[in-house]
Each structure stands twice: as structure tokens, then as C-alpha cells.
Amino acid sequence: MAASTSLLKESPLDPSCAAYDHTVLAGDHWLHPVKKGQVLRIVDVEGNQAADTLFYNLHEPLDRYSASDTIRRGHNLYLSTGTTLYSTRSHALLTIVADTCGRHDTLGGACSRESNTMRYSFDVEPMHACRDSFICGVQQWGHGMNKRDITCNINFFMNVPVTPDGGLSFADGISGPNRYVELRAEMDVMCLISNCPQLNNPCNAYNPTPVRVLIWD
Amino acid sequence: MEPIYEIELTGAGMWSRVISRGKTLRLTDLTGGANVGMLLYHAPERHERYNMPDTLKGQHIFYLRAPYGIHSDMGRLFASITGDTCGWHDTVCGTSDAELVEERYGVHNFQEARNEFYRNGRECFLIELAKWGLGERDLVPNINFFSKVVADVDGNLSYMEGHSKAGDHVDLRFEMDTLVVLNTCQHPLHPSTPYDPRPVKLSVFPNATPTMEDATMTVRPENARAYRNTLDYYLLSR
Ligand SMILES: [Zn+2]
């Protein structure tokens, strides 16, 4: 099912002019600040990958991305061009300014080894999962952070449609090779991406692939 | 059956207690139009908490109702919804904050309104959480019992007024020893003015030990596995 095409918007920014350009390999995490006014682009290099993403106020880690505040302020479940991402203290963190995918999920959260035993089977517990990557990421940042600081994240490029009668499914991706989402930082933020290592989910054809991150000043 | 505990909360009230496994909490909407914002934590290990994403994706559902389960972020089952006359409980819209209440209802402080002063859900959660050594880091998307919010195909949300009627109730059978933190502030998308949060009755009953054949365990295989994880926890820790 295609997302509303009216939300698709290309960016005029030229990758060769980016101040920062990095590829996050499948299953790796990426921790990097994005300063107010900078633009962050996340590229789904091969298509149908999930970029599990958390944002924090760079100067006050207690103030962080809030899925429920973003949903209730935007009166919408999906993220796309024009969506502002809100923090737990009701600050505008970033605004999506371009999007060639059309829809991104913020209900599905991250995979974890513990929840994988619930979702799939007990024997998948040893497999690498996003929460462990997030834990590595917040420990790398410091501030004494741990699992408590990992809240309901964004899944860029994931399609989790909700039906009017309240069903929820993990549908085939509406993303594709080189689709991207671009966000303008409304304040200084720390971005933490877990490039999902999930090998149990048909959405990525059981094959995690890289994402590319670019930042323009 | 007589409850072993019962209390009535006024609108915009707050409450937090540990409810152990083997007990069922009944929430009753006394006048219709109530909202109970709820957060859940594992009582002895409070870093383990209610997880909205796992609850929804584990059960392929966008809202809560009987006989579905309430999942923790550690692959376990906090509670099963064993009774429900309401049929739809929101868990994606979060709670109100001071800014929202002021924008929609204005300011009523204690000096002019005494105990009718305006509170918001976030403030109530933080007050109760602080009593258990928890705080802002522990605020995650909560459940809003008695409130129905639907989404259209483009994801636009609509709050359904008049969803919960006087006497509607929901029963939560606890499968783990759980710190329950709740408030009775209005749903953040409740469109009407004036500020009018509604009272709720809380009743606790003992329940029989669940089996793997119970409705929550059979409605989705994910719930049976989460319950197995819960049983494993108690096997090791007791
Ligand atoms: Zn993942």
C-alpha cells in the first residue's frame, strides 16, 4: 500500500556539498550531534531497511524524543514531510523537510533480544538486536545512561499501517533503494541510530543493509 | 465477590501501589467519560516497564481490549485484560502536560479553586513516580483506559466522544508483581471544554492462577511465550 504521494518531497541539497557523510553498516549503531539549523539526511541505500532512531536534547539528555507527544501534537500516527518531532518536555527537536519514502513508523519501537523471544521464538534470543545497539550508543555518550533512557524510537523507512478497525501490521516496505528522509534540527540534538540487524523480519527480506547519513550546515 | 481493597478517585486524581500477581484490579468509570492514564513497572526491578510498541506489535493490534495482554519491555506479561465492557483503550496518545491544559482550559490555581485546581497527567505521573525513586527517565507512552482514538488510512486521529459509559469497567489480572501508577486526568485529545476530569473506582480482587489455556495466552502465540518468560522469571527468583 503506497503512502499518500502528497507527502513526498525531494530535497535541493547536494550530497557532494555535505559537511558530513558516513555509511552506517547493517547492524551497527551511530551516535552523532546535529546542531540547530543543520540538516540531517538518512538514506535507505539498498531499500526496505529500518533505521531505528532516537533523538535527545544535546545539552539535557533527560529531554528526549517522545513518540506520544509527537503523535498527539501532530494528530497523526505516521511521520513524513512537515512532521515536527517533539520531546518529552514539549520542545520541537527536528522537522522533516524532505521525504522520498512517504511514511515512517513511530509505534513499532525497537527489536530487543527479550522481545524477540516473545515475537518469534525462544531460540532467537542470542541474535543481535536494536536495543543492545542503543545501549552501546547511550553508554558511549555517557551521562550514566542505560536502558531507562531508551524510549519508544522512530523506525525510519518502516511501514506499520493501522487499519480503521484498529488492526496493526508490519507491511512490506514502501521504501526502496536510495529513498531518504531529511530533517532540520530545531535545537541542538544528539542522534542515535541503530541500523536494525533483524534477521527474523520479512519486511527487510531477512537481509539488513546499510544506511547513509549526511549532514549539511 | 467482595473486593479486598476499594477506593474512589476524584477526577484529576492520582494513585500508585504495588499489586502482586494473583490479584485483579478493576477500574470502573463511575459517571461515563472517564480516562485512566496508567504506567506499569516491575515492582522489584523498576527499570522493567510497560512497553507500548511490544504490546501492540506482539498482538497485531493498535489499542487494548480483552482478552489481550499488557507487555513489559523484557518480553514478559505484566497483566491480562480479563474483563472489559468498554472494548477499546488507547495507548498511543500519551498524556496531557501543563502547556496543553493551560491552552485548552486556562489556569485555575489552588488559591482561587482550592482542590479543584487544574492538574495535568504528566505532573501527576511525575509526582507519583518520585515516591518510588522514579522520574522523567521512566516516562514512556502510557495506557489511556476508557478512551477510544481511531486512525484513518492516512494515520489521522479522531477521538471518539461518549465512548465509555457510566458503569463501564475493565479488569487487569496481574501476572507479575507490578507497580501501578495512574491518574484520572482527561485524555490529551479530549476535545470538550470545560476542564471536567471524571471519577473512577478502583477495586482489587484475588484471582485463580491462570493457565496456558486462558484467553490471553491463546489469543496470540506471542502472549503464551511472554507468559512463559514470566513463569521462568518466578521459577528463578523465588
Ligand atoms: Zn531492530
TrEMBL record, chain A:
Residues 23-189 form the DUF1989 domain. InterPro entries: DUF1989 (IPR018959), UAAP2 (IPR017791). It holds the Pfam family DUF1989. PANTHER family: RE64534P. NCBIfam families: urea_degr_1. This is DUF1989 domain-containing protein.
From TrEMBL, chain B:
Transmembrane segments: none annotated. This is DUF1989 domain-containing protein. PANTHER family: RE64534P. Coiled coil: none annotated. InterPro entries: DUF1989 (IPR018959), UAAP1 (IPR017792). The lineage of its organism: Bacteria, Pseudomonadati, Verrucomicrobiota, Verrucomicrobiia, Verrucomicrobiales. Residues 10-179 form the DUF1989 domain.
